[in-house]
Amino acid sequence: MTSDAVAIAQDTTVAPEEIAALGAALTGSVLTPDDPGYDEARIVWNGAIDKRPAVIARCAGTADVIDAINFARRSKLLVAVRGGAHNVAGNAVCDDGIVIDLGPMNAIRVDVQARRVRAGAGATIGAVDRETQAFGLAVPLGVVTATGIAGLTLCGGHSWLTRKHGFACDNLISVDMVTADGRYVTASEDENADLFWALRGGGGNFGVVTSFEYQAHPVGPEVTLCAPFYPLEQAGDIFRRWRDYMADAPDDYTAQFVIWSIPAHENFPPDLHGRAVAIPVGVHSGPLDEAAAFVAPLRELGEPLIDLSGSIRYLDVQQAFDPFFVEKAARLHFWKSIYLDVLDDAAIDRIVARAADRPNPWTLLSTRLMGGASARIPAQATALGGREAPFMFSIDTGWTAKADSERAVAWTREFWEEMRQGGRGSAYLNFVGAGEDTEAMMRASYGDANYERLVEIKTKYDPTNMFQLNQNIRPRAT
Ligand SMILES: Cc1cc2nc3c(=O)[nH]c(=O)nc-3n(C[C@H](O)[C@H](O)[C@H](O)COP(=O)(O)OP(=O)(O)OC[C@H]3O[C@@H](n4cnc5c(N)ncnc54)[C@H](O)[C@@H]3O)c2cc1C
Predict the structure, then answer these.
(1) Atom 19 (ligand 1): residue with closest C-alpha?
(2) pLDDT beyond 60 at 5
(3) How far apart are CA 225 and CA 291, in angstroms?
(4) Ligand 1 centre from 152 Cα, in Å?
(5) All residues at 6 or more sequence positions from 12 whose CB lies less than 8 Å from its CB, including other chains
(6) Average pLDDT over residues 392-401
(7) How confident is the model over 39-51, as a mean pLDDT?
């Protein structure tokens, strides 16, 4: 090793002149630890993640991605792939390796006639919403506008439109990608169909996606929000009645039962700041009169402290959670999720009991109503797991002091085990914390048949596991 060479994990070194050559080749830019902007470029949303890559390749186009992958392979660098950097496990960054950052590749084109949208892998939910709503369209992606579409889509993508139009990955028409050996490929039903199957739920395991093509749908401009905030003390009863009412929910209605504490934010009356609440929240994207009639009983499950229900622009409801989640590295997070086969009274009681004992007020517990369009897609039509479950539960634990990390993570794991109740423990892989992607958990989440097929496709496209910083599917030994 020369004294000024950069030390890399996996016992490799990269000479500065090789990094400089990569920088000269890219239309985008290369950042190393001494460059201005390096710290900003390595930050991810979860403040618990603090990693220092040797090289950050900010790619401006497909040619840059090919060069970055070839460079990483030659140098035997650990590879992290970055879309919107919102993944809570923090896989968008690594120590000592290379980050292939798609952020600059964020162009969006809407084909209004065909209702198709082509979006670069660096685009965010908010940017796609803005471009599509200009034409009265929407792609079902997710909530919180700064979230990247790339990581989100590859592991599913749950939004306010999921029961009506399926997960984000169900709306994919094609995907452009660069493989571990630097090949540019397109995947669709007609081309590389095995890869297209795997990319709909299999995460970032197969290569670096450069762009996604989606089917869009007419939505809004106004939809109906249901958001009465009830005191947590009434949660047990309200939760049961919400569950029973959801048995007849139309596909137009996508819903969650959220337990949270009202943030100290100007959007809420000061006397309610910090109040623990239960919110049967949902969005109805059908006709406004039908929607108002459907949500009315949910607004009368008790005496709400505040009720934000009513018709609202789709663009506004998409941004409604932003003030509480948007800032990068503001808090430390550890999340876990589990698909529930049943939401019986015992499960509700467990959630409500734990709600009173959250490590801090920001910890959000969400029980998502599944079913509808996403459940009508056969389990083996795409890689995505969990479609058949009636509910998905997530524990989004957040805290501020590093000293509290051990306790917060332990609390989350214990609670998750309680919810598992000896079941198989299938997770929604977009809500999985660092280090949780054990082979047993991955298999449980995909189901045996889909998992075996994913391993085959991983072995074909990434036999050396170059793309291992993700919810990892290990290739077969070759
Ligand atoms: C505030 C917040 C709100 C959220 N809301 C929702 C929601 O409403 N619905 C939902 O389903 N999820 C939601 N999520 C979870 C979200 O789907 C995941 O965190 C997802 O990974 C974010 O994608 P990203 O591109 O921002 O992530 P990144 O951290 O950039 O990437 C995550 C992983 O995705 C892979 N990846 C990223 N880009 C590429 C690429 N171009 N090619 C190949 N692989 C790539 C890599 O494996 C990478 O490690 C939310 C997360 C946060 C923090």
Answers:
(1) 87
(2) no
(3) 9
(4) 4
(5) 75, 76, 77
(6) 94
(7) 95
